[in-house]
Input
Amino acid sequence: MILGILGGIGSGKSTVTRMFADLGAKTLDADAIAHELIEREDTKSTLRQWWGDEIISEDGTVDRTKIAERVFSDAEELVRLERLLHPEVRARIEEKISEFKENNEKLVVLDVPLLASSTLRDFCDEILFVNSTEALRETRVKVRGWSPDELKRREAQQVPESDKKILANSIINNSGSLNETRQQVEDLYESLLAIDFTERE
Ligand code: ADP
Output
């Protein structure tokens, strides 16, 4: 069973994904895969050609703040970066999914921020929407150093929340405490495994 997670920025997708992992699910984090990929020498050299040496920090790693500044202020640059990274990220995710299937893993959770507009959605048996109020999301992304305007700018680049909700088969409300969210995750985990079980019979 492959469960895709959708939700606004700061809604709690990573938090919910971690909760599933605590219950024994395998998880795939597209951001983490993209971060590894961006540090590969061939990727770095392409980025340097596009945007100059200033996007490399003094320690030799890619300065992701600089990259974010570029792509979130220019939609064409975002598309260019996505065209470079997405096929590789997708290939890595496909590879991992096959491995998990071979090992008969019961539940694999895909935390792919752009899942709503990605063909990776086709892999998902179920889609979960993580819901949090806008005010809470604003507060929660402050720790990333993002203002409400920055949040809006980034969200404007994504499929609107209302459309993400329509794609989902289930919703977790993450506007309450972490314990309340954990309880919902546990309930959903149980019911997803039950669906899988009956399907196999
Ligand atoms: P996303 O992956 O959707 O961008 P995160 O899971 O990273 O969102 O959550 C954003 C921030 O809010 C994180 O710092 C996380 O620890 C915090 N957070 C998430 N859910 C809750 C909650 N129910 N109560 C308090 N803080 C939360």
Summary: The mean pLDDT is 91.
